[in-house]
User: Which sequence fits this backbone?
């Protein structure tokens, strides 16, 4: 529970002096904020996390499912629990660069992701999309990835609006196991 705000006049607070604010520390996000892990070139050896993930085990890479041309992976910095991405194995930046086969499989895995997340968590809806280029908001613009973000009625509460904080009720490894277990087989 957050502490009530004081109506007392503002006073100088020193290091270690308690104030009226409660804090949710998320130091793991500093790497994202500072742009660490952004690829310098087109491959795992060049720092592209989307090229490196398929080389890891499903658990270590947070991979939900693997197809022939694309795979589904949990987002390390999710907007909501179960937020995953569908990513081509091939290092391409733009949707227009996908082959017909990659395009079809990207759509098919997106449908399966929606079904799995609904089964695993009862999502009421989804935001699905991709940001093409850094100016459009792509965090890793060099490697195409489509977001599948589950939504629930009332999920945008006071925390992101007032506290500029996302509350995730589950560890990513637990979410990966839950969604992978619910993944449709056909």
Assistant:
């Amino acid at each position: 529970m957050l502490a009530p705000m004081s109506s007392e006049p503002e006073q100088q607070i020193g290091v270690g002096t308690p104030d009226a604010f409660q804090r949710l520390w998320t130091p793991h996000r500093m790497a994202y904020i500072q742009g660490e892990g952004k690829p310098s070139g087109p491959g795992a050896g060049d720092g592209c996390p989307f090229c490196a993930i398929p080389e890891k085990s499903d658990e270590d890479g947070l991979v939900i499912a693997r197809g022939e041309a694309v795979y589904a992976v949990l987002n390390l910095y999710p907007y909501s629990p179960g937020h995953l991405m569908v990513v081509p194995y091939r290092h391409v930046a733009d949707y227009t660069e996908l082959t017909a086969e990659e395009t079809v499989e990207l759509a098919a895995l997106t449908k399966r992701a929606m079904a799995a997340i609904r089964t695993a968590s009862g999502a009421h809806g989804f935001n699905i999309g991709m940001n093409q280029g850094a100016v459009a908001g792509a965090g890793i613009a060099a490697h195409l990835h489509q977001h599948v973000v589950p939504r629930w009625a009332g999920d945008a509460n006071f925390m992101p609006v007032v506290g500029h904080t996302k509350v995730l009720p589950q560890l990513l490894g637990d979410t990966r196991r839950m969604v992978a277990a619910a993944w449709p087989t056909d």
Notes: Confidence is low (pLDDT under 50) at residues 1-10.
